[in-house]
Design goal:
- By secondary structure, this protein is an alpha/beta fold.
- The chain folds into two domains: 61 residues, no CATH class; 151 residues, Nucleotidyltransferase, domain 5 (2-Layer Sandwich), CATH 3.30.420.10.
- It is built from eight helices and eight strands; from the N terminus they run H-H-H-E-E-E-E-E-H-E-H-H-E-H-E-H.
- A six-stranded mixed β-sheet has the order 7-6-3-4-5-8, with helices on both faces. Strands 1-2 form a two-stranded antiparallel sheet.
Length: 251
């Protein structure tokens, strides 16, 4: 029941009910409803002050982001964004994959992206590369995350820990991109993937800890805007791959 009754009755009913739902099933409905009302009110205020109004999809994503915040032992944590301070390449947890991504700008401002997917033992699952077109580096880094998630989706992988060396790209995905951002569509498409029905975590990594993805970006002269997949370790990644295997934390 939405607005088929008096507003006060509607608010009271939604504040005390617990309807069945698929997308937000892990949180109490009262928490979801209060967050959604607050975000709709914020959107209304933005419209009043001519700041542009977010789409319904943006409101849903913002709601999910806030719901994923938790306080444990007095410390704020987040299910999507995880702060890691790894000294060497760290394998993902059992049942997860680690997705390292990187991007670079080549001649005439043409961007490319690359990535490597590995399992909990550090074994190679898949590598990929793609020509993106003319983009600034921060947007290219976002599209590297998007491409990597699309590859994982194609491989039917649902538990993913993404590592990027671009804090700017991560912050742009987490925060409101605003309606006037020149690459708002690319940001929103990537953000939509993050909030799909799977388990995704994003962490920042130092460049030396995503060595394989970085070496692909520096070595490959990719021209295709189709994703090129590498089910086997390419020659230019072998040295970095075996270095990670020897030194990986927990190994």
């Amino acid at each position: 029941m939405f607005f088929s009754c008096d507003l006060q009755v509607w608010l009271k009913k939604n504040g005390s009910s617990n309807p069945s739902r698929a997308r937000f099933h892990q949180w109490p409905w009262t928490r979801i409803f209060s967050h959604a009302c607050w975000l709709i009110w914020k959107a209304h205020c933005k419209q009043l002050f001519s700041e542009g109004i977010p789409s319904s999809l943006e409101v849903q994503q913002q709601c999910l982001f806030h719901l994923m915040e938790e306080v444990t032992m007095g410390t704020l944590s987040h299910k999507l964004l995880q702060h890691n301070h790894e000294r060497s390449w760290t394998p993902p947890k059992e049942g997860e994959v680690r997705l390292d991504v990187d991007a670079s700008i080549r001649q005439y401002s043409q961007a490319t992206c690359d990535g490597v997917i590995r399992d909990a033992t550090g074994e190679w699952i898949m590598g990929f590369e793609k020509a993106l077109g003319a983009y600034p580096v921060s947007t290219a880094e976002i599209l590297a995350i998007k491409t990597g998630l699309e590859v994982c989706k194609g491989l039917h992988i649902s538990d993913i820990h993404v590592y990027s060396d671009s804090l700017e790209a991560i912050n742009m995905l987490i925060k409101d991109s605003r309606t006037n951002h020149p690459f708002k569509e690319e940001i929103e498409e990537t953000r939509k993937l993050l909030y799909e029905e799977w388990n995704v975590i994003i962490s920042h990594a130092n460049r030396e800890n995503i060595h394989c993805a970085d070496s692909m970006t520096r070595t490959v002269q990719v021209a295709s805007q189709d994703v090129i997949l590498y089910p086997e370790i390419p020659a230019w990644c072998r040295e970095g791959f075996w270095r990670d295997k020897r030194t990986m934390a927990g190994g």
